[in-house]
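# nightly structure sweep
# worker-07 picked up a monomer target from the shared queue
# config: single-sequence mode, recycle default, output format = structure tokens
# input follows
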Amino acid sequence: MTVFGKLLVFMNLVFSVVTGALIVFVFTTRANWQAAYEDAKNNAQTAEAAYKKEKTSHENDMKLKDSELASVVDERKALSGQVTDLQDKNQQLTKAAADQTNLNKSSTTQQQKLEEELKQIKEERDIQEKEKNDLRKRLVDLQKEKDTEHQVAVNADLNSANLRQRNANLLRQVEELTVRNRELEATGAVVGTGGSSGSGNAPSITDPSNRAAPAGVRGRITGVSSNGSTLAQVNVGSDSGLSTGTVLTVYRGTEYKGELTLTTVEPKTAVGKFNPAKRTSKIEKDDNVITSFGGGQ
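# output follows
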């Protein structure tokens, strides 16, 4: 074979290899293009679905925004009406404020006058309060003087009633002794000359047998007999200088009730017989007793 033939064979071989390579490249490229096409197709379908979904969402958003916009427009109209009303009210309030300012200006003078009058009233009230305090103090002093005078008067009344009762008792004793003396003279029991009687053991009017008790000893009735007798118990006794025969004045408040002659005396208590000043006088528990208001018993 010649060189030219060999060259042709070599060239055919190269051409065959190149052709095979081109065929393989075309097949591979076609296969890649098919896969890319399928991938692109899938991506396009996905993108279209996403686009449709986004479009639907966008349309819904637009509808919502349109609805909100309509609400905002309505609210704006309402607010515009409120603003108009508020402007009217503001004008009215401004006018009222101006009127109030004028009124305040006119009332300032009256307030000053009222303050001056109030100051004068306060000064007069302070003067009246001072006079009131002075009068109250005088009333307290007068009440104290009245209470003192009342106590003195009560003591004087009780002492007077006590003295009147004692005088009545002494007169009664004189009458009883006189009657007794006449009876003794009539029966011949009187002896001696000059009309002197033998009743030397009779009790003397000017020298009573009662022992003297301290003046001003006070107590109260702690018990009264319930059997109809006139016996009563007092809460003072021999520790206070009392003894059998001591006569206590019985009273309650300013009422003089009578006398209590002690028959039994103990250190802290004593029992005596009640002699009423009047038939209606009754001795009761918690009545007051006293030896005397001035001198001894």
